[in-house]
Amino acid sequence: MAKVIDIEADIPLHTVQLDALVVSKIIKHAREAPSTTAHGLLLGLDLDGTLEISNSFPLPHQHGDEAEKGSKTIARHQASMLRSLKEVQADDSVVGFYQATTLGAFFNQTLLDTQAIHQDKLRHGGIVIVHDLSQTAKGNASFRAFRLTAAFFDAYKRSNFSTASLISHRLTFSSIFEEVPLKIRTNPLLSSFLGKVAEPAAAQSTGESALEPTYSVLDLGTAGLTRNMEQIVEAVEAYRTEEGNLSYLSRQIAREKSKADAYVAKRKEENAVRVAQGLAPLPEEDVARLFKIPAEPSRLESLLLLGQIDAYAKSLEGTASTSLLKMYGARAGSGAETSD
Amino acid sequence: MPLGPPSSAIHIHSQGASDPSQPAPRTPTSITIHPVALLSILDHYLRRTDSQERVIGTLLGVRNDNEIEVRSSFAVLHSETDEQVAVDMEYHRTMYELHHKVSPKEVIVGWYSTGSNLNTYSALIQNFYSQETAPHPAILVSVNAGVEEGKEAGVTAYTSSPVGVYPKPENCVFIPLPVELRFHDAERSGVDLLTGTASSPSSTSSQPVADVEIIERSLHSVDNMLDRVLAYVQGVLAGGKEGDAAIGRYLMDTLGAATEDLEKGGFNSSLQDTLTISYLANLVRSQAEVSARLALATAP
């Protein structure tokens, strides 16, 4: 029974199990949403280290200028949806949220903020499921589960992303999130139903299966490549701007610091002279009050941008390698002479 | 792509002489269902209480001309006893408003029920939903989950028309409609993922799947198809089977497709492009990694 009753959430999560219903709901919402930032809440329960996600619902799309009003509407939407789901015996405990993304780049500030709030509030800290739209369109439905690493969360709570803090927490973009293994599950009722639908109706000569085979995976086209490259260039551009800002700020800090140091040194010298002349030394004033040394800039933004660049490049690499594979496959299939 | 058991019903499309100045709401002639709606219905059925014979809920979707596209559904509370049937209307309204906020295009098109028997209560509920969807007629999608003995799993759809000398809410005829499964092409891989998962022995599959695996699966299935075609063609050539000219033409069109762009020159330049892209991507990744590490480096 110790396995089943886990009030204090002591058993750490090792897998996330996603129900077929949630899979289809996320795919539908992600495709229909007006922007690529479709997100919603995941509902479920954890049992013996496995987080079973059994339901989900989308949250309304938020417009940029009414963020303040929007968050209240969303909270109300969420509360009333949860109440309604409870009435029809569906799971009603929030265990995380999902986020749609394109080309694998899901690093952004909003995602981090939401997850950080969840990590504080939810049992087991909650998880975020990232659904990659472009991958799914290419024929490989992709779902991945993440949560923030302890080191990043610690730095986030102190809201300190200075260089020193990054070093002491050993943070790079790859250590912001840790991936949790994810499994997809269909319940037996659904399995039998899907099996029935997908099975070829061989008995009747005219009947065909409700699901005809598709070969979109084998498409040789490289339509998405240009966009992917553009995204990389954009991300690199943004990163360069950010780095420029950072180095400007750090130069400013250095300048102010050296000014302050010079002032302190000068005052000490004067005092030494005055002591030698037998006069009372001047008081050492508070340097910090005289010189405003700016705080060290946060490196979080540049960290996230690097993460995005990496993700875009990774998906580009994946596309390139599969298209290589397909090209050779097509050549073998077309029976072209291999003279070289 | 028909869903559900074959039926012998004739689907009559009444093209009655309608008054153009007053376009009457058209009777739907075909229904398509998105997988999400089906999955929600089955999930709701699974979560019913012991006392519930069947579960019902609202269907949301889009109307185009004579076709109704069911896009999603939600569960509605109801109770059936020997004397009466009750549907929680307030709940239905609340849920509709919640759904409407997220996907404003979807409107109420009808209702669903599990199990395959239609009774007086079905007619009463149908009457209620007809008021909700007025002036358009409501549709009923009846999902048989396949748990009753002797009945195949499947989906049937109906629209209703009043019957009797005096129209009464509990009297109506349910007219069957053809129903199909439909989803967007981009969602296809998700459906494949689910059917693949459903057919695996443990009913689970782990993510993420490598692209290569998916390609391999597709190639295998192409291979199987080719074998089938080959067997057929050889059968025809050997005289064992009678050849069908139509099939022959299809095969010619499919297999005779030009592969000219794959000629040597095209292949090589395309190969170089791909390799360059792969090189670039790797370069960018290592630069990003180096940059992240450099930020952590301290002066000795």
Please name the defining characteristics of this protein.
heterodimer; A: about 350 residues; alpha/beta; Cytidine Deaminase, domain 2; 8 strands; about 15% strand; elongated; B: about 300 residues; 2 domains; extended; initiation factor (chain A); metallopeptidase activity (chain A); eIF3h (chain A)
Task: Provide structural commentary.
The complex is a heterodimer of chains A (340) and B (300). Chain A is built from ten helices and eight strands. Chain A has helices spanning 20-32, 67-87, 109-121, 133-137, 150-157, 163-169, 188-198, 223-276, 287-290, 300-334; strands at 15-19, 39-47, 50-58, 94-101, 127-132, 142-148, 177-180, 182-185. An eight-stranded mixed sheet of chain A has the order 7-6-5-4-2-3-1-8. Residues 201-208 and 336-340 of chain A have low confidence and may be disordered. Chain B is 41% helix and 22% strand. Chain B contains seven helices and eleven strands. Chain B has helices at residues 35-46, 89-102, 120-133, 188-199, 211-237, 245-255, 264-296, and strands spanning 30-33, 56-64, 67-76, 78-80, 85-87, 107-114, 139-144, 154-162, 172-177, 179-181, 204-207. Chain B has an eight-stranded mixed sheet. In chain B, strand 2 (56-64) and strand 3 (67-76) form a beta hairpin. Residues 15-22 of chain B have low confidence and may be disordered. The chains are: A alpha/beta (340), B alpha/beta (300). Strand 8 of chain A pairs antiparallel with strand 11 (204-207) of chain B, so a sheet runs across the interface.
